[in-house]
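Page 42, continued from yesterday. The earlier attempt failed because a stray header line got pasted into the input along with the sequence. Redoing it now with the clean sequence only.
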Amino acid sequence: MNATLKQSWAPFPGAWALALRYFPQVNEGCFITSFSNGALALFSLNGSQEPLFFNKTAHESSVNALEKIDEFTLASASTDGIKVWDLRRGLTAPQLVFSNAKKLNFLSLGSSKGRWLAAGTELVGSDAELHLWDLQNPANVVRSFVDSHHDDITAIEFHKTLPYLMSGSTDGYVNIYNLDEPDEEEALHQVINFASVHLCHFVQSNRISVLSHMETLAFWELNSTDYETDEEPKPREIGDVRLIWPVCEYVVDIFEGYVAYGANLKLSLTIMPFDAESEAFALSRGILLLLGHGEEVVRDVMHISGSNIVLTCGEDGFVKVWELPVTLVGNNTIEPMAALGPETQCEKKDKKKDKKDKKITKEKREKRDKRDKKRLKESRFKPY
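This time it went through. Structure tokens are written below.
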């Protein structure tokens, strides 16, 4: 199945389009995009050829992260700190600005219940810090975790129901903090040692997905609070998804109900159903967004819930709107998942998998991983 490109924009030639957030209550449905030149732009889905409004100097450099706080409020992060915007007032000036004493570059954001905002920083010297603010009392930082990560903090997520905050880093660790504990050491509820972390999510209330920069994927059990009797949970390791998923070179993200991944050499972007409960991927049900963003990396993908519309943005500078051939039902799930048979389980290779992938030798894999590590090191301080 193939998606249809409906509209595209490239408002800042030469700049990468990095992240997307959708706000259905703003101007009857709008989305905002961040760019590597420090700009923010708000677009409408009504067919307008220009952004509704934009701010070319929203930040002094690349906007590393966006976070939707509530139906009207957005947070953005960059080298000049974190800015909180009320989109009903446009993008002229932020309502709040946060920084830290060391003026570290902020790389990642997370929020909870429209009140709590967390941000992780880049490594400078021996410092990579995680800070937490109360947006109802924003004058001071509520919590700071400064000793738990030793490299760039690339991912942050709050648990939906429990007082847990999760952070992932290029130091290879995923940390889960219990925010009810006042001391940093006591607050460190669980530590997952995996690999340089690209993404980590609470895919279920008690399950965690972790994706590395080497495109290896694993699922962990969230520890219970009974430390005396519980053993360290063992992961369900999927391995390098490039060897499992059809036409995959890199993963954009794992979302609630689907995963998005791309292949630059094939000029393709794929949306594939994902069932969190069974941790299964429907390998034969992928929807192709042909030509995607050309040979450039796709930075973000967003499905508008309850519709067949998908938004994408990438390093070619374009923001695109796609129409899928099927309606995404439920919470981002592509059609009913009941038909997911054994061959859709991620640990089993698709029967129609390209034979070429099967012939990849250990030597070639090691060479590719070495190349990926070099690329990660070289691009660490570029927009990710």
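Notes: Residues 330-362, 374-384 have pLDDT under 50 and may be disordered.
Reminder to self: strip header lines before submitting.
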